[in-house]
Amino acid sequence: MNSALYVLTDQPILPEEVTDKVKRREAGAITLFIGTVRELTLGKRTLYLEYEAYTSMAIAQLTRIGQEVRDRWPDTISAITHRTGHLEISDIAVVIAVSSPHRKAAYEANEYIIERIKQIVPIWKKEQWEDGSEWIGDQSGQNAYPDGKPLIDSDIE
Amino acid sequence: MKILLFAHLREEFGASSLSLDLGEITVTDLFEELEKRYANSSLHQVMVAVNEQFVNRDYLIQADDTVALLPPVSGG
């Protein structure tokens, strides 16, 4: 059990543990996003995934996203746990919990977090197929940075 | 400086980190140097973080910095 709000782990994620971190008396809503390993992408069958992270920076970036969320939705509290290592189909890759007094902010903040994870958190997945494997993000046209960099201008001092 | 490599770059370079003695160097010049030394490396689309902060191509890296070469991320 890790009580930190922003966590990477190579162990299976228990969604309720992430939810418990944001529970509080002021909250009227908690949104929970569970990202799982999909078997079929564009007709191609995935056998399993490997996630690799630049761990220290990834935790710093998750923490930064948490701060962005507090700036945009001041009454929210968020918690994020992302898995690393070997994952099978339907395994949980990421869990995001957001609590707020009212549901709208909890929904919006939760979606914002997953979009930001896909932009600025140094985590990579390698898909293993029946006929080969590839680091995703390395595929042309997928997750490319249109301007040669992610949307992180405020990160560059 | 220490260079950290991830995902396909780690596999292409055959190492998760390199130690290079280059002194002060911009990101652009570092890329040229790496492409010269490691002919097979593909640094297209690669982002750079110095001491865990994203930097631009004109950033001046210091000799004792930790430089991470980050392929487009694919978490979530």
Automatic annotation (TrEMBL), chain A:
Q: In which pathway does it act?
A: Cofactor biosynthesis; molybdopterin biosynthesis
List its EC numbers: 2.8.1.12
| Entry-linked InterPro entries | MoaE_sf, Mopterin_biosynth_MoaE
Question: Which ranges form a coiled coil?
Answer: none
Specify whether Transferase is a keyword of the entry: yes
Q: Could you describe the subunit structure of this protein? A: Heterotetramer of 2 MoaD subunits and 2 MoaE subunits. Also stable as homodimer. The enzyme changes between these two forms during catalysis.
- What is the recorded name of this protein? Molybdopterin synthase catalytic subunit
UniProtKB/TrEMBL annotation, chain B:
Query: Which keywords label this protein?
Result: Molybdenum cofactor biosynthesis, Nucleotide-binding
In terms of InterPro entries, this protein maps to: Beta-grasp_dom_sf (IPR012675), MOCS2A (IPR044672), Mopterin_synth/thiamin_S_b (IPR016155), ThiS/MoaD-like (IPR003749)
Pathway, per record: Cofactor biosynthesis; molybdopterin biosynthesis
List the GO biological process terms.
Mo-molybdopterin cofactor biosynthetic process
Pfam families this protein is in?
ThiS (PF02597)
* GO cellular component, as recorded: molybdopterin adenylyltransferase complex
The molecular function terms in GO held by this entry are: nucleotide binding
Which protein family is it in? Belongs to the MoaD family.
Described by its record, this protein's role is as follows: Involved in sulfur transfer in the conversion of molybdopterin precursor Z to molybdopterin.
Subunit details for this protein? Heterotetramer of 2 MoaD subunits and 2 MoaE subunits. Forms a stable heterotetrameric complex of 2 MoaD and 2 MoeB during adenylation of MoaD by MoeB. During catalysis MoaD shuttles between the two heterotetrameric complexes.
What name is this protein filed under?
Molybdopterin synthase sulfur carrier subunit
Species = Paenibacillus crassostreae
